[in-house]
Amino acid sequence: MAARSCLRASPILSTAVAHGLSAPPFSPDILHLHPPTEPRRPISASRMVSPRKKKTERVAGVFHSVAESYDRMNDLMSFGWHRIWKDHFVSSLNPGASSSNPPKPQRILDIAGGTGDIAFRMLHNAHVLNSNPDVHVTISDINTSMLSVGKSRSEALPASQQMALSFLPADATALPDAIADSSIDLYTVAFGIRNFSNIPAALREAYRVLKPGGVFACLEFSKVGNPLLNAAYKRWSFSGIPMIGQLVAGDRDSYQYLVESIERFPSQEAFRDMIVDAGFVVGGDGYENLTGGIAAIHKGMKPLKPSS
Amino acid sequence: MAPTRAFATRLASAAATTTTKSTRSPLTTTACLRDSTSRRAYHSYDHPPPPGAFNTAERQILSAAYRHVPEHGFTHKALSLGARDAGYLDISTNVVPEGPFSLIKYHLVSKREALAPRCAEIFNAPVGGAADGATADAAAGARGQLLTVPERVERLTWERLLANQDVIHRWQEALAVMAQPSRVPASLHELALLADEIHHLAGDVAVDPSWYTKRASLSTIYASSELYMTNDRSAGFEDTRTFLRRRLDETGSLAGALGSIGQWVGFTASAGLNVLRSKGARI
After folding, report:
1. A1 inside domain
2. What does the subunit comment say (chain A) (predicted)?
3. Is the dihedral of CA B5, B8, B10, B13 positive or negative?
4. How far apart are CA B110 and CA B65, in angstroms?
5. What single DSSP character describes residue B182?
6. Which residues of A40-61 are buried (b: 16+ CB within 10 A; e: fewer)?
7. Known binding residues of A for S-adenosyl-L-methionine
8. What pLDDT sits at residue A245?
9. pTM given for the model
10. How do residues B106-132 score in pLDDT, each as one tens digit?
11. Going by C-beta distance under 8 Å and a sequence separation of 6 or more, which residues neighbour residue B46?
């Protein structure tokens, strides 16, 4: 099961949505945390496979208590860089761009995108920059509370963009029938896939729902190549981030989990190989490092004819 | 010398794709160069042919997109049209890792790889005047010997420049993209590969330090000729060719002058040494 430990912002979004489109309302989806009510313990498989229902209840229980600090936390932890990563991710995908006139419709599935960070940027890119109103984005998240955050944030979008949005609570490793085989142009997952309990299964699902020629794109934390930067980054993430978590959010354990889950996530090459194993074609190296490898964008395309 | 060898091998392996291709034609197996055969043998025995710079899907999209370059330039639009032509979706252009820059790289790589077969055509073709009625091999040998290495370098560089003519009106945009700081290393690498390919095809087998200076000077000359060509409106780019020849001649005379100076310094120094020795200095 896609055990995504999440607890994120609360529907306190009337201020956040006031930002409008030029600065899409930020939501804290860098963080997919386990509830702080749970005592800290070493990361183990048991946490990843804990029953979804129980997790959802836990998440709902703590949902409001820590919500407000997330925006602030993401900015503090990444020095605001997460916005740049997300902007770059979306602009490099360039959703909505079409060579034909009128432009071709596109269907986009944003997995683990509950708060709409990526989805709203994609809508802006497609509808405004590429003038392609036929781009529809489905925001999917395993956590219905997260989806309600996205829903309330989306109310600040122009009506045309709201019409092009839909919300779907779903497990990324077993997508519901509502999403047919070979029906999606672009599948995105930003800062979510490392919390999936079964990444290969999620990749296979992505392969299934994508059209031939469709693109799988993933923005996720990764491994830093430069040893100097890595030393500074590790020091920051293992000492600084839990400390900030404690001071600002009053919740050290969740942020400890965050950095440990980043540490456990496979390297750029290993994750690229997982994407290739799922049947995707990758171009060049198959990934693009951001900020020296702190985050990386992986892209894969479903080939026209499946390789045997 | 050792690093030179290693570098040459690496560069040779980059060109191996074309070399393997050329085995198909009996004409090209004679190869325009003396070390070409050994190079091919080396690669076929010790190394599997290296994978091309682009995988199948990339190649399909890029080759289709390349046909749109004269009209739309090295742009995302051309890529998108190419993806459509190749049967892909608009979004599939994401598989091409660097977008428009990949399209530029495709031009550079494919034109560089096309040089080896072209070289075989130019220098090995049994031309009436050169051939004395013997086999194609003999004709090739005869013709190959007619041209000195610098002459062949000039000819190959000119062939490579001519390969730009279809997209020359878009080439300034491409140069601008290539000059972006993040693209500069890849662009320079491609230029170095081209300079090496030309020298290799021209039959230059020197492994002294001039290995580096020759390639560096050819890179500079090629880049400036290309820039000159973007503004050349003369028929058949004749002005560019004369420009190229002038630059190569300058390098030749400069190299000659430097060589002479070196010789003079060496001679004077050893003569001076001998004078001192004759005076009883214990040197």
Report:
1. no
2. Component of a multi-subunit COQ enzyme complex, composed of at least COQ3, COQ4, COQ5, COQ6, COQ7 and COQ9.
3. negative
4. 13
5. T
6. eeeeeeebbebebeebbebbee
7. 115, 141, 171-172
8. 85
9. 0.73
10. 999 999 989 988 888 888 765 444 434
11. none
Of the candidates B247, B255, B69, B76, the one whose C-alpha atom is nearest the C-alpha of residue B154 is B247
How far B77 CA sits from the closest chain A CA (Å)?
Answer: 6
Instruction: With a cut of 50, say whether residue B92 has pLDDT above it.
Output: yes
Identify the CATH number of the domain in which residue A279 sits: 3.40.50.150
Domain extent, residue A136, equals 16-301
- Indicate whether A116 belongs to any domain: yes
Tens of pLDDT, residue by residue over B206-228, are 888 888 888 999 999 999 999 99
* Cβ pair A301:B92 closer than 8 A: yes
Q: Which residues of B262-283 are buried (b: 16+ CB within 10 A; e: fewer)?
A: eeeeeeeeeeeeeeeeeeeeee
Q: In what order do the strands lie in the sheet with A184-190?
A: A165-169, A135-141, A106-111, A184-190, A210-221, A295-301, A287-290
Check if A88 contacts B (Cβ < 8 Å): no
Domain count, chain A: 1
Band of the pLDDT at A272, cuts 50, 70, 90? very high
Q: How far is CA B210 from CA A67, B199, B216, in A?
A: 67, 12, 9
Which band of pLDDT confidence, cut at 50, 70 and 90, is reported for residue A145?
confident
Q: Between these two residues, B43 and B250, which has the higher pLDDT value?
A: B250
User: In 3D, which of B207, B194, B214, B215 has the Cα closest to residue B5?
Assistant: B207
Can you name the residues that pair with A216 across neighbouring β-strands?
A187, A300
Mean pLDDT on A79-98: 92
**The predicted structure's pLDDT at residue B176:** 94
Contacts of B59 in chain A (CB under 8 A): none
Residue A175 lies in a domain: yes
Q: What token pair was written down for A230?
A: 């890595």
Q: Are A28 and A66 in contact (CB under 8 A)?
A: no
Which parts of B9-163 are beta strand (E)? Answer: none
Radius of gyration of chain B, Cα coordinates, nearest whole angstrom: 22
Chain A residues close to B102, C-beta within 8 Å: 283-284
* Residues A210 and A303 sit within 8 Å (Cβ to Cβ): no
DSSP state of A78: H
Under 8 Å between Cβ of A291 and A81: yes
Give the count of Cβ contacts less than 8 A between chain A and B. 78
How far A307 CA lies from chain B's nearest CA (Å)?
12
Which helix (DSSP H) or strand (DSSP E) does residue A212 occupy? strand A210-221
- Which of chain B's residues have a Cβ under 8 Å away from the Cβ of A186? 91
Q: What is the DSSP letter of A9?
A: -
Distances A251 to A73, A243, A248, B21, B62 between C-alpha atoms, Å: 11, 9, 8, 63, 50
- 3 state DSSP class of A285: coil
- The percentage of residues in chain B with a pLDDT greater than 70, rounded to a whole number, is 74
CA distance A86 to A121: 8
Domain assignment present for A173: yes
In angstroms, how far is CA A64 from the centroid of its own chain? 21
State how far the Cα of A27 lies from the Cα of A69, in Å rounded to an integer: 11
